[in-house]
Description:
Distance between the termini: 61 Å
Strand order of the largest sheet: 2-1-9-3-6-5-4
CATH topology of the largest domain: Rossmann fold
Structural class: alpha/beta
Helix content: 40-55%
Number of strands: 12
Shape: globular
CATH class of the largest domain: Alpha Beta
Largest sheet: 7 strands, mixed
Strand content: 5-15%
CATH architecture of the largest domain: 3-Layer(aba) Sandwich
Amino acid sequence: MANNRQNLEGSPSNKEPFRKRIRIDDPLAVSSPNIPTAASYQQIGQLPHGEHMATSARTQWTFSVEDALNDMKKRRLKERQPLVYIPPMAKANLQARDDDLFPLMDKVQEFLASDRQVMLILGDSGSGKSTFNKHLESVLLQSYTRGNPIPLFINLPTIRKPEEDVVVKQLRKHYFTEDQIQEMKQHRQFIVICDGYDESQLTTNLQTSNFFNCPDQWDAKLIISCRSQYLGQDYHDRFVPKVGGHYNRPNLDLFQEAAIAPFSKQQIRDYVEQYVPLEPRTWTTQDYLSRLTTIPNLMDLVKNPFLLSLSLEALPKVTEGKLDLSTIRITRVHLYDTFVSHWLEVNKSRLQGNVLSKEERAALDDILDAGFVMVGVNFSTKLASAIFEKQDGNPVVHYIHFKDKKSWKAEFFSPDPGVRMLRESSPLTRSGSLFRFIHRSMLEYFLSRAIFDPSGHVDNQDFPPHPDPDSSVAQSPDFNGPLFTLSLLTEPSIIQFLCERVKQYLDFEKQLFAIIEQSKTDLTAATAAANAITILVRAGVRFNGADLRGIRIPGADLSGSQLDSAQLQ
């Protein structure tokens, strides 16, 4: 990249092109050329006295920036918890052949060594985009030496208005001073890793809106990850760098993309082999693999890394007491049901064994009396609904008690003993004052439960993995709930959860048909009816002979519907 800035007098440039500064090694080694220092110039007497002073000050300031960078490096690497990591494979784009794959890290290496400015990493929900991005950050930080391009991981949902000054906002989070930030802006290069473009619900081109690689602006390579389901056909305008006056001309030569592929059988085996030694377990690697291959259709589900992790946690409970594994039917929603139930049971046992204050013990007893798992599920379900209602689905909740104690957030994040126990027992993660579900799909799962709660279909309090549809108790729809207030047409993961509920519960199907019928005379049911018919169509429900005349279903997705002999007009 061209350097349009004036360097400090007597100071060597740290802004030479990336391709000259990155040595391609395995896994991703970043090398530093022999950059002369001010001290080396002074030793050979090349600078006049005034330039000695300016360069000495420059050297002292550089060390100050490097000290701050070293502190950031230590903090970030310390935050990285040991986890299972399987190098992902990818293809060139969403349209490329599924058998034409390459290691994603290799493609990132090529990108960093090239003149390209933006790389887009696409993948389904749970495909491992965030895991890869964090691993990439760790590799770059571990290999970082003075003067090299600075790796900066940015979780986009945690940044307010990331379309403006996103690097500055992230550096402030790492305690850099304004002077240090300006110093780096003028004299350093960055590798900016932006995670969660879809979760921030962005539509802007971050390269353009942040003026990356413009004169007197940030000199940066930009790596962006996004769920493939979030993008339409013409998504390139959101990512391709633009050149010319006022960024009016896209330049595909500066752009690269890759789409993460599902796990292969070998990757699944490698994952299990890394997973088993993490904790003491009664099952061996072969025990897990035999169950994965014996239970029908399970291997197809666990090609998704996050679903694989849920499966490994859930399998012992799912198969307990089952003699013929070939008769077990496991769906995506079943895995989430079982995982959440197991998660809450483990935390229930943890709390019961803890030394608690009198106030904490009273709060725990109240929760236990009401049913710990049921209360825990309701807590997360209400939180998911509030996130969609109050934050339009942005998954990160910022809570500071002094400021937010009178807001909707206090119901979930206040220091009240009962609230704290439920929060700490839920599948949430915390970073300072920022809270979120452990995975975006977990937020979507609980939102689907706000639309249809299977626990109301049985007598016991803990929701079962496979209740009998015939034993279900009819539920009245919540006219103020998300089915009526939120369009699900852009939420394919939530739709998928609800499709599986339709197949599992006959009365949910009947409820959705009733809402469609209601829309004929009730304008307020139009959004719910569009959601309902989309869910039914995706679930493969037949509408043969149904009277659909006069229904209001704005924007509904009827692709693949079976409407033979249905009356539409």
